[in-house]
From TrEMBL:
GO molecular function annotations of the record: nucleotide binding
SUPFAM superfamilies assigned to the protein according to its UniProt record, in alphabetical order: Glyceraldehyde-3-phosphate dehydrogenase-like, C-terminal domain, NAD(P)-binding Rossmann-fold domains
Protein name per its UniProtKB record: Dehydrogenase
Pfam families to which the protein is assigned, alphabetical: GFO_IDH_MocA, GFO_IDH_MocA_C3
Gene3D superfamilies cross-referenced by the UniProt entry: Dihydrodipicolinate Reductase, domain 2, NAD(P)-binding Rossmann-like Domain
InterPro entries: Gfo/Idh/MocA-like_OxRdtase_N (IPR000683), Gfo/Idh/MocA_Oxidoreductase (IPR052515), GFO_IDH_MocA-like_dom (IPR055170), NAD(P)-bd_dom_sf (IPR036291)
Occurrences of domain GFO/IDH/MocA-like oxidoreductase (ranges): 132-264
Organism annotation: Actinopolymorpha pittospori
Domain Gfo/Idh/MocA-like oxidoreductase N-terminal: 5-123
Length: 354
């Protein structure tokens, strides 16, 4: 059997489930450790996912030589300190989005990874979903042409889940972060990948009492974007849009990309509509409706989402390649988020830091 890479998952709350599940199914990964400051969570995760060890100490876990890389499913403010400590210990780092809370923290993580010759990859999962890989391919083939305007939304209704979860989970960090950094960064990162770099943001946000009476962080936001290539865009995100479809799935992400030669659009049912003059020389338009799932009997698609991200992670560790969503790239998405928060606070457009 080929080499299996040992992973330690730090943070055994709800978000870690998809990570553990993907590692359990991956032929080149062994789950060496489950790590959490709450002993019961670490032990429970180790038992459920077959981890060889459970730890409550970062230092103790990082001292285990069987661990080649760490997966950080931690609150945002812990990303930088634990990632830096892991890098200094010679471990590759896979960290949940956003890379960190601030650009200074992100820079420190990037520097630590470079200084210790380890990989730093951020889990920007949307880039590894097959529906968006398909959109990327269509854009690269020129169906839409030079982008003019883009609209994306990430609408969720988490209110039912919030009221029905355990008190312990509600008291910790689940969804206490604002919607801009919590899920807005997924949409922003995806647009950077599909359209290009964002140079300016103007954002507005609001906070309701639908999640919790004492909530302080925003739960809805709209960001208006200017891209380096001249395209403009709109990004709408929310945790509190009262709709059964949005409560039943937190993966809805309708997308509209309009270019000089046509458009590529994906609806709430993940059906892609292409309208294009590119292949006819501009005289007539071609319209296509493309499902994002193949028919029965078709070759299986590549692993996607978390499994796809971990496939890519292992390939990069094995071959020494730079991840698609490495630290430097993830820093650019965080820079847009920082600019959005400044825009909300200052009520004006804000240039994105380089």
């Amino acid at each position: 059997m080929s080499e299996r890479f040992g992973v330690a998952v730090f943070g055994c709350g709800g978000v870690s489930t998809a990570h553990f599940d993907a590692y359990l199914k991956h032929p080149k990964v062994r789950i060496v450790a489950a790590v959490d400051t709450v002993p019961e969570l670490a032990e429970s995760a180790a038992n459920k996912w077959g981890a060889e060890q459970s730890y409550t100490s970062v230092e103790e876990a990082l001292s285990n030589p069987d661990i080649q890389f760490v997966d950080l499913c931690l609150p945002h403010h812990l990303h930088a300190p634990v990632a830096i400590q892991a890098a200094k210990g010679g471990k590759h780092v896979f960290v949940e989005k956003p890379i960190a809370n601030t650009l200074d923290e992100a820079d420190a993580m990037i520097a630590a990874a470079a200084a210790n010759d380890v990989l730093l990859m951020v889990d920007q999962t949307k880039r590894y979903q097959n529906r968006f890989r398909r959109v990327k391919q269509l854009l690269e083939k020129g169906y839409a042409g030079k982008p003019i305007l883009v609209k994306i939304a990430y609408p969720q209704d988490i209110t039912y889940a919030w009221t029905h979860m355990s008190d312990q989970r509600r008291r910790t960090y689940w969804k206490h972060d604002g919607v801009i950094s919590g899920i807005g960064i997924h949409a922003i990162d995806l647009l950077r990948w599909l359209i290009g770099e964002v140079v300016e943001v103007q954002a507005v946000a609001s906070t309701t009492k639908l999640i919790a009476p004492d909530r302080k962080t925003e739960d809805s936001a709209i960001m208006i974007l200017k891209f380096e290539n001249g395209c403009i865009g709109e990004c709408t995100v929310s945790y509190v849009l009262r709709d059964p479809k949005m409560a039943g799935s937190w993966d809805l992400m309708p997308l509209q990309i309009f270019g000089e030669d046509g458009s590529v659009q994906m609806d709430d049912d993940d059906q892609i509509r292409v309208y294009s003059h590119a292949s006819t020389g501009g005289d007539e338009a071609v319209e296509l409706l493309l499902p994002t799932k193949g028919p029965v009997g078709a070759p299986p698609p590549p692993n996607e989402g978390m499994a796809g991200a971990i496939d890519h992670l292992i390939e990069c560790i094995s071959g020494g390649a730079t991840p698609l969503t490495d630290g430097n790239d993830a820093r650019k998405s965080l820079a847009v988020i920082e600019a959005a928060y400044r825009s909300v606070n200052e009520s004006r457009p804000v240039r994105v830091a380089s």
